[in-house]
Amino acid sequence: MVLVTGGTGLLGSHLLIDLIRSEKHVRAIYRNPLKKEMVKKVFSYYTDRPDNIFSYIEWVKADLLDFSSMEKAMEGISEVFHAGAIVSFYPKDHQQMMKVNIEGTANLINLALAGDVEKFCYVSSVATLGRAENDGESNEDTFWVPSKKNSVYSQSKYGAEREVWRGIAEGLKAVIVNPSVILGPGFWNDNSGLFRLVYNGLNYYTRGVNGYVDARDVSRAMIAVMDQQAFGERFIVSADNLSYQQLFTLMAHYLDRPAPTVDVSPFLTRIAWRVEAVRSFLTRSKPEITREMATTTSQVYTYTNKKIRERIGVKFIMPEESIRETCRFFLNDLSQEAGSGSGSIG
User: Fold this and answer.
1) Of 177, 190, 155, 150, whose CA–CA distance to 83 is shortest?
2) 310-319 burial code (b ≥16 CB/10 A, e <16)
3) Cβ 209 vs Cβ 300: under 8 Å
4) H runs (alpha helix) in 55-102
């Protein structure tokens, strides 16, 4: 049986439908039962029978930090896909994110080593890679370098990766995938929130560059590296690199919204996050921009997918196609909510 952590998230929900379609016996952990409804929603984008596919999943309530509940969830498991993590650039979440991402992974590694787990796939991030010199593309051998520019999220994922490498050193057959920014539908107020922001009238862009990949490609890559038993290795999973101007312009085009025109320099982003910090403090509300957001979106990060293409044979959906399809799903959902009188997307 296969265990999936993070199954109620953007990537996890795509992974679940792929595993069920490949006739795997799947168990998934959850904490909030309401989030399971989002999994059905994602399924509905790709099948006319989302409830039928959902019924094949064995759901177990568990928490990565609760060793006892995870011990029960791991009973009879031979394969693990560990996609569960906290992703946040808000200071109030930093302590919990470090704890869940690192200690939660350590718990899972220890249980896998003590049990009968034959295969283990960990979803890391390109945020754990170093930055190539002379603005070159980072690859799997571009190693992490401590820096003030590293976000707390990247630190948490790097710490979690170290737990996986420890497990590999102790005999666990594990593989690591490092996806770039994941694109996909359904989580319009969370992982896919950029689509909502652009639809609502985002009129500026920063000068940064990043890698992007479709959630379906990450899921298929995870299954492929496990099937080919590429243990003891890591693989970048990224379709292409885009500037934020290119990204937002494509989103605006397929959402039928004006493209952003205001070029925000790194100097202005530094001012913006400070102003927003004061506003957030005075109003006791969540800041729209944080220091980490400003720093990350002003940097140029590019990645190569050569290793996974040549070694594993993974083919990628290009970001424009992924953005076009995701925008179509967004507009359909918006239309359905407007018809029902609900307006949670916008």
Assistant:
1) 177
2) eebebebbeb
3) yes
4) 67-73, 94-98
- CA-to-CA distance for 19 and 4, rounded, in angstroms? 10
- Residue type (1 letter), 229: Q
Alpha-carbon distance values, 132 to 72, 141, 145 (Å): 43, 10, 11
Return the sign of the alpha-carbon dihedral for residues 223, 229, 232, 236. Answer: negative
Q: What is the pLDDT of residue 19?
A: 97
Rg (CA), the chain: 20
pLDDT digits (tens, 9 = 90+) for 291-310: 666 667 778 899 999 999 99
- Tell me if residue 316 falls in helix, strand or coil: coil
Count H helices and E strands in the chain, helices first: 14, 12
Residue type present at position 194: L
Give alpha helix (H) positions in 171-265. 193-199, 215-227, 244-254
Q: Report the C-alpha gap between 120 and 108 in whole angstroms.
A: 10
- Residue 133: what residue type? E
Listed residue (178, 180, 334, 188) closest to 256, CA to CA? 334
Protein fold of 2-184+211-240+303-317:
Rossmann fold (3.40.50)
Compute the distance between CA of residue 133 and CA of residue 79 in angstroms, rounded to an integer: 37
Q: Which amino acid is at 119?
A: K
> Mapping DSSP to helix (H, G, I), strand (E, B) and coil, where does residue 59 land?
strand
Residue 97: both structure tokens together: 């994110």
Residues of the chain with pLDDT under 50: 273
Distance CA 257, CA 200 (A): 9
Q: pLDDT per residue over 63-113, tens digit each?
A: 999 999 999 999 999 999 999 999 887 888 899 999 999 999 999 999 999
Please, what's the largest Cα pairwise distance for the chain? 56
Taking the C-alpha atoms of residue 106 and residue 128, their distance in angstroms, rounded to an integer, is: 17
Cβ distance 157 to 85 under 8 Å? yes
List, as one string, the DSSP characters of 102-162: IIHHHHHHHHHHHTT--EEEEE--GGGS-PPGGG--B-TT------TTS-HHHHHHHHHHH
- The span from the CA of 269 to the CA of 175, in Å, is 37
